Amino acid sequence: METHCQNPPLSLITDLKVRRQRSSRIIPPEKTERRSLFLSNMDQVLNFNVETVHFFPANPDFPPETVVDILEAAFQKILMPYDFLAGRLRFNPQQRRLEIDCNSAGIGFWVASSELSLDEIGDLVYPNPAFRQLIMDKVDNLDADDSPLCVVQVTTFKCGGFALGLCTNHVTFDGISVKLFLENLASLTDNKPLVLTPCNDRQLLAARSPPRVTCSHPELVKLEIPQGNVDEFDQSHTPVFAPAPEDLDFKIFRLTESDIYNLKQKAAKLGVGESRISSSFNVVTAHVWRCKALAAAADITQNDISEKMSTVLYAVDVRSKLTPPLPPSYTGNAVLTAYAMASCHELENAPFSSLVEKVFEGATRMTDEYIRSAIDWGELYQGYPLCDLLISSWWKLGFSEVKYPWGRPKYCCPIIHHKKDVILFFPDIERGQNALNIFVALPHKEMDKFQALFNKFLA
């Protein structure tokens, strides 16, 4: 049986030999308005850091020292239109919610160097834990309550290439607004105007007054808020998406464009013919969902498996689904978690097309009223999404398409955190524009079952 699982490269580098040379704090070049930035209920549940690395090959016209100077100047300039990025996250005890104090305290900027070349690092697509050396999440000599919302690390390699490591708190951006931020940053590095002026008005996604929950939201659970010390709530407000240390195996499952086409054909043969229903994302999500749920239920008796339910969540951009639509330049989080639910019996025995349709229906459920209802639900209960599988997709974000004066990135990837209920999709540049890498972390026994099911349902 063909396997789509990639084992770690034989020559996986575990030490990138990185030496951090200096750190600084970048502040806006001019005074900005001191204000408190409202954070929507979509922002509130995403209080954790997102770490990405962008690898660039050497360009003789832009030696590493020049690139560092250009990037440092561009990050300073961009803190004018993105002034909130230089602020600090605060908990407002009166409102009982997080907000950003736009106080121009600045972002972190680190300069580092590696003794290796990009060729010596090898496979950039494989999520090497050593890539964590290319990221910093703090600045020296700052107190914990003065933590920057953004920390940058530029690491130069001996070949002349470099890596741009970004650590940002998720309350600042979603994936789509990060793409615009990078496009604006690239434009500033080329001494050009912004591609699009950011819209920083998070009130556009404020709850209605009074809140009105008009739709069912089975994917959300209420958060029990302590009535005592406010700080106790602040510290306990940990979202379901936050990484947690677990004893897990992890593997990469790779799907070529041909594999994905075959999944679409399976769905079409069984009744789902419309391309918008059997999209690449929908068929892959349905396939992964089925494998994950059945692997977790492998030891359940046949009677119990008929009743055990599984829920998959995945992010849907709601910018164009609202009335009126949000501006394309909206900087905050404008994604909701769509859901699909099925019993393990159905996941095992139902036609593949029915699972694909369930995934498709999750996104079509996102009408203006449903979105407003979900926002209002958050206002009343301050809860969060709950599931046994969350799909986090970096597949089509297009970070590698951003063009800087020295060229486009060779590859962009998130720093991977192992969590058994989160599966990541990210592009596989080695196998074609639409090929896909799937990162899975599971207990050893479940991983073996997942791999067997993954290959079985692709055959």
TrEMBL record:
<dbReference type="InterPro" id="IPR050317">
    <property type="entry name" value="Plant_Fungal_Acyltransferase"/>
</dbReference>
<comment type="similarity">
    <text>Belongs to the plant acyltransferase family.</text>
</comment>
<protein>
    <recommendedName>
        <fullName>Omega-hydroxypalmitate O-feruloyl transferase-like</fullName>
    </recommendedName>
</protein>
<dbReference type="InterPro" id="IPR023213">
    <property type="entry name" value="CAT-like_dom_sf"/>
</dbReference>
<dbReference type="Pfam" id="PF02458">
    <property type="entry name" value="Transferase"/>
</dbReference>
